[in-house]
Amino acid sequence: MNGAGLSEPMTGKLDRATLTDLVLSRTGADNPNRLVGAAFGEDAAAVRVGDETLIVSTDPISLAAERIGQLAVTVASNDVAASGGRPEFLLSTVLLPDADPSVLDTITGQLDAESKRLGLTIVGGHTEVVAGLGRPLCSLTCLGTADRFVPTGGATPGDRILLTKGAGIEATGVLATDFRDRLDLSTDALDRATAAFDDLSVIPEAAVLTPVATAMHDPTEGGVLEGLIELAITGDVTLDVDRDAVHVREETRAACEAVGVDPLRVLGSGALLATVGADDADAALESLAAEGIDAADIGRVEDGDAGVEIDGERYTEPIRDDMYALWDG
Fold it and tell me: Do 119 and 90 contact (CB within 8 A), yes or no?
């Protein structure tokens, strides 16, 4: 969970040192039922409830204005699914800059529609107007149970690295809506780019991979590259990645080229990263294909210092999402 430090007026996650010192070290009382708690790179917690394991995650959305409600549902539920859970319930917090009912109508309509589409139930939350807020903010907490928690930090040397769907899917939809006036693309390309919003859930592929994955992670801020970096740092391994094996959709590449961003370094919801044993990789890809889910083997896990090797470069620290320069500018 990284990006800009507190002293830097930039959008994005906090740097790892600040997060560790001021957030991760302050988690209240110990509880024996906390199986997995707050940690760098881990987007969900695991809590023992009787004989069950409850997976819980929370995430805010504030920048993707056109589809904020839809994205909020998908991002929160993806974190639970990527940890081996079955997303089921949501708590929704909506903070508004003013009392314009049309804005609230749009957001709650999107929350309702996407939750129904994914089979999730909104069971509560909070809604209010906040003075000084520049844009709506929507933060959702998702809960679900799991038979097996799959961590971000479980990659083992010798594993293969799988990626579903491709890079920059979320960014494709955001660019086609919030930044549509900057894209010199055909109507067909814009329509396909906007349709990316309906392809952001990783619940289906997570269900396929959970039984065999040693680690899973859904890339969000910083895209596929940041997701890989978080896998490497959390697991204390080296990831050797073949960039040419990372699929980038035609509309994604066109939209990213139009605004000068790297498809591997932009909002990446819609993809799922997973590491699996080398003996399980082919069967996992076949199982995904049988469910109609595109996926590729993009590299391998190696012993060594934590980091990602790709394009002849080595990354050992989190990166900042290329998209934020578009909003900051």
Answer: no
